[in-house]
Fold this protein.
Amino acid sequence: MDDELPASRAFLRSVDWSRLEHGGGSAAPGTPMVLAGLAHDSAPDAAARALRHLWDDLLHQGSLYSATPKAAVYVAAVLGESHGDESSMSSRHEIELLEWLAEVAYAVSVSRERQLKEWFGPEVMERNPLFGEVRAIRPLVFTGVHPYISDAHTDVVEAALLAATHLLDAPELAAYIDVLAPDIRDVLGVSSKQGYRDAAISALAAWGENVESLTASTESTEEGASWNEFWNSGRGPVDNPPF
C-alpha cells in the first residue's frame, strides 16, 4: 500500500481544530485534548473518555462533522502504531476503534448514499462535501486497519474485517476485494454477531458472490442486532477501561 499514515501525536498537533466542529460545537480545544487519551501510555479513564467522544460527538448515529475525517486519520494512525505491540492496548480497545472506523466507512458507502438520496433527493451528496472528504481518506484508513486482519485475537480479526468490508467500497481499494473476500465469507460471514454477518453478506452479494448458504445460516440465528440496527443505535456506555 502506498498510503503512509502520519505519526499520530504529530498529526493531532498539526490539525487546526479551531476550524472544525463536532456534534457539540467547536472541536477546539477539546477534541485534540480528549483524543490524546487514545495513546497507549494514557490512563484508562482518559482512553474511555476518548472513545465516548468518538462515538457520541464525532459520529453520533452516523452523522458526519467537519472534525470526523481528521479524527478518523488519527484513529487509523494510533492503530497502525499499536499493532504488534501487545503492551500498547487491549484487544477490546482495538475492537472499539476498528468498529468506529467501520462506521465511518459505512456512513459514506454506496448503500448509504442510495438510502440518503431516497430520503433527501439526488442532490444530497453535493450539499454535504464531507462525504467526498471522508471517501478520499479511505485508502489511508485502510492502511491502519489492514494489519489487524491477521491479528492473533479472533474478535479483533472480525472487527478489522468489518472495517475493511466497508472501506473496500472505495474504488482505489478494489484490488483487495478478491484477496479479502474469502476471509470476509469464512470469518465475518459466520460471526456470532449478526451485524457483522449482515455486513459480510451485503458486501459479498454486491461483489457478485453467491451468498445463499450465508443467508440461510443468518436466518437460523438471532444473536445480535442487524448491521443497520447497530449502525443506527446508540453505542451505550464505554466507561469500563479499555486497556
